[in-house]
Amino acid sequence: IQMQFIEKYWQNCPYNVYLISDIKQYEHPIKGIKLHSFPSGKKSNGPTDWSNNLYSFLESYNYDYIIYFQDDYIPYKQVDQKRLDTLLNYIVNNEVNYVRFYTAPKGNGESIKVSEDISIKEIIPGTRWRHSLMLAIWKTDTLKNMLEKVPNITPWDFEKYQGLCDEYTKFYSLDLPDYDTSDIISFYGMYGSSNGFSFYPFIIDLIKKENIKKLNG
What contacts 201, CB < 8 A, 6 or more positions away? Predict the structure, then answer.
């Protein structure tokens, strides 16, 4: 489902797209997307394998920055590639460690105007949920070093690990109203229960409206 939304709302994405998993590979071509599977080759022993698989991938990843999506995030509007390029150029040129697209929590430090229509706000050390796995741009080495400190950890425990990123400066959220997402990459979470595809009703309505077909399951 995620890949089908990306195909629709991020046509001709200029970046390589990597799907990180255990032993599964994505075998369905996506038009206009440079898609690569990265299976660890090890059968999953549960959610704690998440950190090890991601760390293994980052060890072989040859770029300084990564736009990180969890597997249950979907874009629902056209990605604003021009503004994303502007933001990325600022991040790279200023060696920013992290910029989150979702304001939970909202930045609570210095505000920086990146361009006329993009502002970011620092999330100061000691802030709860300073780092999360919401859609964000990460400096590769920063994310890799944090994962190295806490091997064999679930995504949820990684997010809850207070102070894990406090040694780093330049952690930001886009400067938006509370609990809002950027219109640079507008996304929803397909959050559900542990017993399968128990999505929020508005997500089910969106999938039906978009005529998205589940590939399996």
Answer: none
Q: What pLDDT, on the 0 to 100 scale, is given for residue 160?
A: 93
Ramachandran class of 152: left when φ > 0, alpha when ψ lies in -120 to 50, beta otherwise: left
Q: Are 47 and 155 in contact (CB under 8 A)?
A: yes
Which of 94, 180, 74 shows the shortest CA–CA distance to 139? 94
Bridge partners of 19?
A: 37
Concatenated DSSP letters of 90-121: HHHHTT--EEESB-SSPP-S-EEEEETTEEEE
Question: What pLDDT was estimated at residue 205?
Answer: 84
Please report how the helices 49-60 and 140-149 are oriented relative to each other, as an axis angle in degrees rounded to 10.
Answer: 140
CA distance linking residue 34 with residue 100, whole number of Å: 24
* Both structure tokens of 100: 């989150």
Q: How far apart are the first and last CA of the chain?
A: 11
- Per-residue pLDDT tens digits for 72-93: 888 999 999 999 999 999 999 9
Sign of the torsion formed by the C-alpha atoms of 110, 111, 112 and 118: positive
3-state secondary structure (DSSP) of residue 122 = strand
